[in-house]
Amino acid sequence: MVSFSSTNRVAPVATTIKQAYVSPRQNVPSRQAIALISDHGDPAAAIGKEEAGGQNVYVRQVGEALAKLGWQVDMFTRKTRPEDPAIVQHTPHCRTIRLVAGPEQFIPRDQLFKYMPEFVEAFQAFQSKEGTNYPLVHTNYWLSAWVGLQLKAQHNIQLVHTYHSLGAVKYQAVPNRPAIADQRLAIERQVLEQAHCVVATSPQEQDALRTLVSTQGHIEVIPCGTDITTFHAIPKSEARGTLGFDNGDAIVLYVGRFDPRKGIETVVRACAQLKAGAVHKPQGATGTALNPDKLRLVVVGGSDADNADGLERARIEQLVRETGLVDQTTFAGQIGHNLLPLYYTAADVCVIPSHYEPFGLVAIEAMACGTPVVASDVGGLKFTVVPDETGLLVPPQDTDAFAQAIDRVLTDELWARKLRRQAPIRVQQNFSWSGVAVHLSDLYRRLLAQSISDTLFITPSRLAQPEKREVYTARPEIAAATLTKVS
Question: In what order do the strands lie in the sheet with 349-352?
Answer without folding.
Answer: 329-333, 295-300, 250-255, 349-352, 373-376, 391-394
